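Researcher: Let's continue the batch. This sequence belongs to M23ase beta-sheet core domain-containing protein, and it's 188 residues. Same format as the previous ones, please.
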Amino acid sequence: MRSATLWVVLLPGLPVITLTPLAWADVPLPAPAPAPAAGAPVPAVGRGWPVGLRPPVLRGWEPPATAYGPGHRGVDLAAPAGSPVRAVAPGRVLFAGRVAGRGVVSVELAGTDLRTTYEPVRASVRKGEEVGPGDVVGTVEPAGSHCGTATCVHWGLLRGAAYLDPLSLLPPWLLGRGPSRLLPVPAS
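Model: Same format as before. Here are the structure tokens for M23ase beta-sheet core domain-containing protein:
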């Protein structure tokens, strides 16, 4: 049940005005949405980097201590303006447009509860479009980067409202971690 609040408005030279809110007792509150499982493992569904073959990470993921606290909610990958930006895994475009003057593309990853974001990107895809791993979703914009004098792509990963490390989408061998494995070539 919500508590009632009494509002008193004081204006110089005028009588006191009292405003009372509506009675909230009979208004049912919606059930809270379940919190996303931020601690659940992230499947390594990525098939490649969003830009380049193995771009330098200019700034890594730094999770904030609180929801609105300081941190870095993604990774910044060095990329020259005009470079193609690729989907790291198959999915469906949730958003392709401008936010606060920057081009943003967001892709819901197939078979997961995850979505990736890329910015600043001039989109070459539309909302609802299906993309495959490695498909170009846009190009790096020359302006709008928060990487100072360098141009970069800010790559983010979310599960619900929880930010996660996008590098966790990539298999260890793409990150230069772990041994290389040779697989047999099938006979033709």
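Researcher: Any comment?
Model: The radius of gyration is 23 Å.
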